[in-house]
Amino acid sequence: MTTTATTLKGQPLDRQTLDAMLRRRLFFTPAFEIYGGVAGLFDYGPPGCALQANIVETWRKHFILEEDMLEIDTTVLTPHEVLKTSGHVDKFADWMCKDPKNGDILRADHFVEDVLEARLKGDKEARGQKVEEEDDPKKKKKRKTKAEAVKLEDAVVQEYEEILAKIDNYNGEELGELIKKYDLRNPNTGLQPSPPVAFNLMFQTAIGPSSNLPGYLRPETAQGQFLNFAKLLDFNMQQMPFASASIGKSYRNEISPRAGLLRVREFLMAEIEHFVDPEGGKKHVRFPEVNTVELTLLDRHTQLAGKTEVKKMTIGDAVSNKVVDNETLGYFLARIHLFLQKIGVDMTKVRFRQHMENEMAHYAADCWDAELLTSSGWIECVGCADRSAYDLSVHAKKTGAPLVVRERLDEPLIFEEWQVEIDKKKFGPQFKKDGKTVEAALEGTTQEQREKLAKQLTDNGELELEVAGVGSGTVKVSKDLVKIEFRKRVENTREFTPNVIEPSFGIGRILYSLIEHLYWNRATEDGAGDEARGVLSFPPTVAPTKVLIVPLSANKQFQPFVSKISQKLRKYGISARVDSSSATIGKRYSRNDELGTPLGITIDFQTVQDSTITLRDRDSTKQVRADEDTIIAAIQSLVTGAKEWKDVAAELPTFESQEVDVTVR
Amino acid sequence: MTTTATTLKGQPLDRQTLDAMLRRRLFFTPAFEIYGGVAGLFDYGPPGCALQANIVETWRKHFILEEDMLEIDTTVLTPHEVLKTSGHVDKFADWMCKDPKNGDILRADHFVEDVLEARLKGDKEARGQKVEEEDDPKKKKKRKTKAEAVKLEDAVVQEYEEILAKIDNYNGEELGELIKKYDLRNPNTGLQPSPPVAFNLMFQTAIGPSSNLPGYLRPETAQGQFLNFAKLLDFNMQQMPFASASIGKSYRNEISPRAGLLRVREFLMAEIEHFVDPEGGKKHVRFPEVNTVELTLLDRHTQLAGKTEVKKMTIGDAVSNKVVDNETLGYFLARIHLFLQKIGVDMTKVRFRQHMENEMAHYAADCWDAELLTSSGWIECVGCADRSAYDLSVHAKKTGAPLVVRERLDEPLIFEEWQVEIDKKKFGPQFKKDGKTVEAALEGTTQEQREKLAKQLTDNGELELEVAGVGSGTVKVSKDLVKIEFRKRVENTREFTPNVIEPSFGIGRILYSLIEHLYWNRATEDGAGDEARGVLSFPPTVAPTKVLIVPLSANKQFQPFVSKISQKLRKYGISARVDSSSATIGKRYSRNDELGTPLGITIDFQTVQDSTITLRDRDSTKQVRADEDTIIAAIQSLVTGAKEWKDVAAELPTFESQEVDVTVR
Asked: So what's the ipTM on this one?
């Protein structure tokens, strides 16, 4: 397992060079930059936008189409009451400290992390150990606190390391205690910040002209799916299990956005809510299909011990050993693994990390994050939680809507029991304001109590019941007001609230991590010099543009071929770009290596003679030559993923160009 | 030209039946319904969501792919300063009145419209004329004011009608005058509402933890594109003209959302910004391709005369007659027409309405809306404006960013002129606080003045200049502080701010109008009774689900065929649904007619014998029969739009089923 950020070819990743390239090629750019920018907001330029669309499209096919999920599109604007019920108004917060002098606002966990890491680094320096930043890429992020070479006690070093291993596990009070205990100070002022307070991460607004309906921008797409559960079940003709899915923007007002696309305030999510019967162990009918998929797991016990060693295990074993809670959750972990593989993620840089108890919501049964290794450390890109019946239950309770499944029982269930029957018309006049209280007390009796009370009614024509707060604490109810009888009750249907397994994807984080995984530098690779010759080796299926069309020169004879080929590719829905600029062929190919364009067509004098064209593979720079239709058919099979370059290279004649080093010509 | 809302087959459209069907099939649904709902917010269920995705995908191919537009994805959150500069903070408002007694909030133009229409209706009743609501579908919306049978003067009727024809043309003050002049009263209280005040339609929020950065949810996707102009021009290798495009959500806090999807607070937009050189008449190189496309036009002169008669005209004629301002604008009007046609809009229910002078922003050169006729009247679904250089200019001025194009001139321009050269180092000490003022006065001199001043310098060694507000109003500047000489200046580049043509699509409005246009009722058509048998005749290219697969019965022999066919269709990315329910074949087809599924495959006992399957056309209910691969190839050609049903029906053998009336079996 790789532990440092590297390029696709295993060289150390030079983040600055990559960033400059992404900026130059307009993958993404700070939003409102000409106005000075706004932290945590980014725009996607044409290649980023196309890459995002292709990842989403692959996602849609891999999940929604493959499993007939019900895709819905719900609103971002959400009224207060919904998010109050879901718990977000009260609990969707980060811990924030304020500097008492200059008002600096610090995210408490980041602040603790930052200072402790600086001290550990200083300790290493003092001990004369080599400070290898790349040791743990988590430490590579921009640190505010400068390391000072001060040696620490061995025991303190161990304490710090244990704290850092479970930094996500502390609440605000605990973070406050750490700040005091270790005297952590804001590097800008040298002062301890204030104790952490909760800062709600939702953007607030008002809906309607009279400002009396407060609302928020949704922090996740899940709630809209839960609220439509009954309608979706109906649409699915009452069939269980089923899944809904949503792709859309969500919003979190981060205290300190950082690391480019990795912590932003507006982001695209793709979320699945798979509704499953909680009884019968949450089996999944397609689990056998993924049984042998091997995952890299970091379970909660390992983390609680302050360790980060991963285990490789098939999902079949993980579920049967109870490392992963149930089959449905396991099925989706494997499907997430396969999805990441499909879009080109470097699978040696993926781990599934289980949430620790304190990290999870109290109702969650289990939760795993797919984390991808980047130059900013291990980044949570996909969450996969078993949310149990929590959400449906709270919304049902709040609104009275029946967010349940009713299942016809093959054999009806028969109960024999003491039943209470109250004559409500007479009850009110008799007990006046206490009526409801007495009623509730009667309804709340146990089977044993009822048996006794029934006997009182038969024997005395009235019963005596203790009802706290009414009269003397004991009330008498006569037999004309209440009946208690032993009866049979038959249930033909079973009613249950489904549990929810929720795979939740941060598309922007996946997109950025994928870029890092697929980036490499041709110059470093072939030792041809120090010039920057970046390549993004996107698989043809997700690459922003599929084909670059380059006429050899500005010669007018080439133009008709360029037009004809562009038109044909367009007809097949294959995105292509023509570069007729005066730059050398090599320069033009380099530009498109940086854009991650996997294929290149050259039109040269031979084309004019015999209508053949060459097709170039970005990664190997190898070329084949054939007639137009053959080449276009090859392109089609490559961009749909039906074939790989090696298949095409084996089928079509190689074209040996003179361009040993294309960038020099 | 149709003027009333009808079904696809020309029958009167029964809005209630259609609404019930759309609700039943979960095309869309009020958001947060179990919480009582929020006006103007809707969720799209599975068929609505798929229909939306297919419309967007068609749009992307028709516009972005066809013309190599640069698609970008910019943020919804927008800081105050950007929208202050664009004019939205000050001007993006509707006029709102308040009832002095009960606090009712009324949108002023809707209120005036509502009361005047009620009076006109009352007049008709009083005159004993037939009140045909369908006369003008604009009047079919829910009216708050009840019509009372009161006869009006003929002149008054004419006044009212003229007001209604140009209701979009009034500002707040004018609407207030109409309310007073005609004594318009809120039907709920019988009182005149307060004078209209501007209500800004943007949703406001605060970005960041310290609440000191006010922001809004964008009301359009345009601004993000303008702000990225310089980067996009660079990405496009400085080539002009070019277009950017964005597909994303926008937000408007409507005072009174109404008419379902037609006036909502959160909506999907697709917007193009085509940047063009303002010189040379805004020609478009592909205009000849659309020259002969015939459009239905309602120009501004007709409307100002209080009329609504349309003219049919080719876009070629419209541009050469100056009905439409320029070729580029005309090109996009024609392309919009072709797009609407492609997705299946009934082109007899489309008109292009030109904005009146007061409707347009002051900077706009021309603006046309594509309006679609629905049961709520003519609905603006696409706007197409020439925004001139306004947006780029104001953002450039505010930020200093060079949002311009620099074009190398073939022949440099040479100017000979008097130039002023100031020695700023000496200027400050000499004039102190007045330095800048004197400098500005010198820079501001005309060529004639400079010639005279140069002579003064030569003759007297100093010049005398009137500078208001400095000393006595006249200052002397000696020749060691300033030079004025006659020199040559050469310009090799031309710099200009591009103009912007902006086609802007409201996807939700298009989607809803399309549904109305393609809806009809099979029962009404074939006279087979009064049962509701709704059909949505979506073209296969945009239909939410392409194929319904129905096994004849629950017989287990059919199952392998169902699985195999589903899998094959999935492989080709064709969305299909299996209905193995116990309902009759006819009922199952009816359900899918309502969902607009164009094709149906039946698996029956013959399939088990010879592996042939039948393919049914939704609209004609005709069927063909062939082997699996032939049928799947036919489906592929239908869903890509390469063939129509009549082609397939001509090629494959007809299957004469017994199902004369499938719903009865």
From this structure: 0.86
